[in-house]
Amino acid sequence: MHSRSAVVTELRATLAIAVPLAAANLAQMAIGFTNTVMVGRLGGVPLAAAGLGASLYFTIGIALQGIVSAVAPLAAHAFGAGDRDGAARIAGQGLALALLFALPFVAVIMTFDSLLLWFGYDAALAAEIRRFQRAIVWGAPAMLGFAALRSFLAAQARTRPIMLVLFGGVAANAGLNWVLIYGHLGAPALGIAGAGYASATNSWIMFGTLAGTILLTPSLSAASVLRGAAAWRASDIRAILRLGLPIGGIFALEIGSFVGTGVLMGLLGAPALAANQIVNNCIGFTFMVTFGIAQASTVRIAFERGAGRSDAAWRAAVVALGLGASFMVVASLVLWAAPRAIIAVYIDIDDAANREVIAIALRLFMIAALFQVVDGLQAVAAGALRGYRDTAIPMLLAGLGYWGLGFAGSWVLAFPLGYGAVGLWWGIAFGTAAVAVLLTLRLRRVGSPARRMG
């Protein structure tokens, strides 16, 4: 049993890390939202090209960031054990890996337009996607390097600088878009390519600012981080890859299942696809809050395990699960009570042309409201398991839930059984619930002191 004072102390410690991280995650969402709004003024084709181009770019980027994010639990464990130099060395190795991953990342993005043409995409649309991707890809090294430095700071519970840098990134991205897309302040109007160059430039600004913060803070051991980046240490690299590759795999499986469901939604027509985009974008904001709690749970559990306090680590897991579930209950009630108000943020609900989109979105919001809690639980359970350095089995469980049950169930419900868009989302709900149950049970098996004693 956890004493009340210990739970309150852990709650404060988790919130101190989670709140800035959640705010930073929301700022990242705001950057994407800003891009969509500003590119949308160029017309339908540029908007579609930037949307698909960004989805492909960030799907790969997030998977690679997941690998690099293994720095957080490894460094937090070292801090908990009192090994500050070891934590800085791991951060340096993670930074070196991030820069190494940027090379194949860029190479893959450069070939996407050819692949799209091979799949039968319209040549004009593929050309616009190429213009966008070949601009944004210049920010790939900075995007991955930022993930490594962010993980290092999170491991020390220094999350406020991450939040401030990303808030600044929202404003900088909007300003760069204004200049480069539309051609203000003497710059040429680059259109969709300008949006890509703006995002790439903003990635380097955020990476440079975070790196500067570490360099100017003596207690952050910047010299040790740089030495770690320059000196390749096989044991550290193996530890990062062993932990990080399954993390990246989980991210790819989860994002891929939603992207795949979106592709299936497009087969049902434009109104269903538009409704899907609205609901997906909305629940993306709620998910980012619980993802911040998940990131905090990773750090708190790894730190306590490094200090040799297994009971405190389990308490951190329980508190994080409670926080995630509590927030998602509130989110669920909001989605259930005010779907029309939320839809009105995206489209004109008084326009008769949007009637079908609104009708589908209303049904999808009801389903989304029902699975918000399990979505929060699976996110936090996955984060907690990363703190226990348990990532390979969770990746397999995620694959079973998201694809074996979720995606397959979506297709069966939508097409053979004829439930359409609603069927696709019930498949998502079943798959997410399965992952939540499986990962929570796995967390209990790995972390619970009572279970281990039994």
Structure in words:
The chain has 454 residues and is an all-alpha fold. The protein folds into 2 domains: 18-232, no CATH class; 247-454, no CATH class. It is built from 18 helices and no strands. It has helices at 4-40, 44-68, 71-80, 84-110, 112-118, 123-136, 140-155, 160-182, 192-215, 222-230, 234-266, 270-306, 310-337, 339-346, 355-387, 392-414, 420-447, 449-453. It starts with a helix and ends with a helix. The mean pLDDT is 88.
Question: Could you provide a short overview of the structure?
Answer:
Helices cover 85% and strands 0% of the residues. With 454 residues, it is mostly helical.
Task: Give the tags.
2 domains, mainly alpha, 454 residues
Helix and strand topology:
Blueprint: H1 4-40, H2 44-68, H3 71-80, H4 84-110, H5 112-118, H6 123-136, H7 140-155, H8 160-182, H9 192-215, H10 222-230, H11 234-266, H12 270-306, H13 310-337, H14 339-346, H15 355-387, H16 392-414, H17 420-447, H18 449-453
Helix pairs in contact: 1-8, 1-12, 1-13, 2-4, 2-6, 2-7, 2-11, 3-4, 3-7, 3-12, 4-7, 4-10, 5-6, 6-9, 7-9, 8-9, 11-16, 11-17, 12-13, 12-15, 13-15, 15-17, 16-17
